[in-house]
Specification:
By secondary structure, the chain is of the alpha+beta class. 21% of the residues lie in helices and 36% in strands. The chain has a seven-stranded mixed beta sheet, sandwiched between helices. A two-stranded antiparallel sheet has the order 1-2.
Amino acid sequence: MEQNGVQREALRLVENVDSCSKLVIPEEVQKKIREWCYISNDTEWSGTLFYKPTGSFEEKNLVITVVDFLVSDIGSGAYTEYDVKPEVISYMVDNDLLDCKMGLIHSHNKMAAFFSGTDISTLGEEGKDAAHFVSLIVNNEGKYVARIT
């Protein structure tokens, strides 16, 4: 079933990049996203996104599978920011995530899910020294947008 350009199944296709990649979010991660949007309904929240890539851009079969995320900041109604702290590594060890790449997830609470100028700048800055970096923006309506460097 497709709704607003997003495949809504146990695994969700969030965005195609030049028809050569997709982002898959398993139902248990979607549930956790919904819980955080409920908990922090009026404020933006952000944290580390844990994901596993398979395939490649070159082969036009890149799949990014979201495994989990760790919320690190509950900000204001229009802003959230955090620095990666040592607790992230502890969380990775405790949750068997050491083979995952790290990206960014944050909410736009009651606003649309879109990449603002700040979000695009953050994506570029975080992704400049990595083979790839994934940023996922969600909102309370259950809409997601994602970009990869």
